[in-house]
Amino acid sequence: MDNQELKRYALKLRRGILRATHAAASGHPGGSLSATEVFTLLYFEELHVDPKNPEDPKRDRFVLSKGHCAPGLYAALAARGFFPEEDLLTLRHIGSYLQGHPDMKHIPGVDMSSGSLGQGISAAVGMALAAKIYGESYRTYALLGDGEIEEGEVWEAAMLAGFRKLDNLVVIVDNNNLQIDGPIDEVNSPYPIDKKFEAFNFHVINVEDGNDFDQLRAAFAEARNTKGCPTAIVMKTVKGKGISFMENQVGWHGKGPNDEELAKALAELDKAEEML
User: In what residue span(s) does the Transketolase N-terminal domain sit (predicted)?
Assistant: First the structure.
């Protein structure tokens, strides 16, 4: 798929994120928007998945370890055809299967229920280890937040992944430098992130612009060609990417746009699409 088409899908995902969090009057748009390009590339190019057979045992696995950014995952799954796009507007509503965190029991395409930070990567390591034990060829991907990696459980999982040489595992860190309470280097700095993963025997790929498809594609290609150890992709991104008044604003970590803000944001996306 060429970059122009991927950019159009990314705009679709951003619209889905905004409309869903607006309809819910809550949710987490900032971190969903920073990861939009990686969601897009994963579901439209990298992952071997089939919306018509979401439980295929041969499929690649994806775990959204930063589970609060479910609006981004839901928008990607809907755009890929796992469920109707109009269902995004039921986000967090009573009775909806699209709740604030991913639920593997009720949402097609979700491989792991997540939300308690740090637990997703542990599940992903288990999936990758199972593939090794049973001789399966599927790959496992996990997306973590940079604030999330302040959790100790992340490093317990990383220790096992490195020790077991899980080269079928790709850990992606969304390094947008903001968490709920402010900049990560002011709350509880995990820097240098790359050196920490290297210490746990990961091959580390630093991506200077995690909102750039070419850089992400090259990183995933390098990860596929890495043998004998797991890969960590540490990608610098912009929280709230694509919406001018949301970019790099910690206040958009966990609130939905109101009517006026939604209209302004959608207008910006329409203008961006016109320029493609």
Answer: 19-265
Residue 195 has pLDDT above 90, yes or no: yes
Looking up tokens 């240098």 gives 192
At 65-77, the pLDDT tens digits run 999 999 999 999 9
d(CA 84, CA 87): 6
Number of domains in the chain: 1
Burial class (CB in 10 A: 0-12, 13-18, 19+), 18: buried
CATH number for the domain spanning 7: value is 3.40.50.970
250 burial via Cβ count (<10 Å: 0-12, 13-18, 19+): middle
Q: Are 167 and 226 in contact (CB under 8 A)?
A: yes
Give me the half-sphere count of Cα atoms (radius 13 Å) on the Cβ side of residue 155.
14
Query: Rounded to whole angstroms, what are the CA distances from 32 to 13, 68, 134, 156, 204?
Result: 9, 9, 34, 26, 23
| Cβ(93)–Cβ(134) below 8 Å | no
In the structure, what pLDDT confidence band is assigned to residue 142 with cuts at 50, 70 and 90?
very high
pTM of the predicted protein model: 0.97
Q: How many CA atoms lie within 13 A of 10 on its CB side?
A: 27
Query: Which pLDDT score is estimated for 1?
Result: 86
Contact 253, 33 (CB under 8 A): no
